[in-house]
């Protein structure tokens, strides 16, 4: 089970938690690991989320924006489907300091 989805479901069992993954093989892998309820993982692109406007109270991103070709499009979609808040948790090698600093931390 995806750690972020698992942690949210454990902390808030009545919470509707959905994830979006564009790669079918990774969706299948997530389902095999127990992410089938809710539906927990949908095959879709973050650039065109398959949800109506303001359909979630909160929308979160966990460490994917630095992999995306169009991160601004993903953030726009997150804002579109969120009613109350958007949380972005992302890091990459540029935001963590020089290589020497990263190796010493």
The CATH superfamily is Vaccinia Virus protein VP39
Overall spatial form:
globular
User: In which range does the helix fraction lie?
Assistant: 25-40%
Mean pLDDT over all positions: 82
**For the terminal residues, how far apart are their CA atoms?**
29 Å
Strand fraction: 15-25%
Number of strands: 4
* Biggest beta sheet attributes: 2 strands, parallel
Number of spatially distinct domains: 1
Just give the CATH class. Alpha Beta
The SSE order reads: HEHEEHEH
Radius of gyration: 15 Å
Low-confidence spans: pLDDT under 50, at least 5 residues? none
Strand order of the largest sheet: 1-2
CATH topology: Rossmann fold
The quaternary structure here is single chain
The CATH architecture is 3-Layer(aba) Sandwich
**Helical region count?**
4
Can you tell me about this structure?
This protein has a single domain (3-104), classed as 3-Layer(aba) Sandwich (Rossmann fold). The strands form two sheets. Strands 1-2 form a two-stranded parallel ribbon. Helix 2 (24-32) links the parallel strand 1 and strand 2. The longest helix is centred in the C-terminal third of the chain and has 11 residues, at 71-81. It has four helices and four strands, in the order H-E-H-E-E-H-E-H. The chain is of the alpha/beta class.
Layout of secondary structure:
Elements: H1 3-11, E1 19-21, H2 24-32, E2 41-43, E3 56-62, H3 71-81, E4 82-89, H4 99-104
Parallel strand pairs: 1-2, 3-4
Give a short summary of the structure:
By secondary structure, the protein is of the alpha/beta class. It has a single domain (3-104), classed as Rossmann fold. It has helices spanning 3-11, 24-32, 71-81, 99-104, and strands at 19-21, 41-43, 56-62, 82-89.
């Amino acid at each position: 089970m995806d750690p972020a989805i698992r942690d949210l479901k454990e902390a808030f069992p009545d919470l509707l938690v959905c994830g979006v993954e564009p790669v079918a093989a990774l969706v299948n892998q997530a389902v095999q690991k127990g992410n089938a309820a809710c539906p927990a993982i949908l095959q879709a692109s973050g650039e065109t989320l398959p949800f109506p406007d303001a359909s979630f109270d909160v929308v979160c991103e966990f460490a994917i924006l630095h992999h995306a070709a169009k991160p601004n499009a993903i953030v726009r979609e997150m804002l579109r489907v969120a009613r109350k808040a958007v949380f972005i948790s992302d890091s990459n090698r540029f935001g963590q300091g020089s290589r020497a600093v990263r190796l010493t931390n």
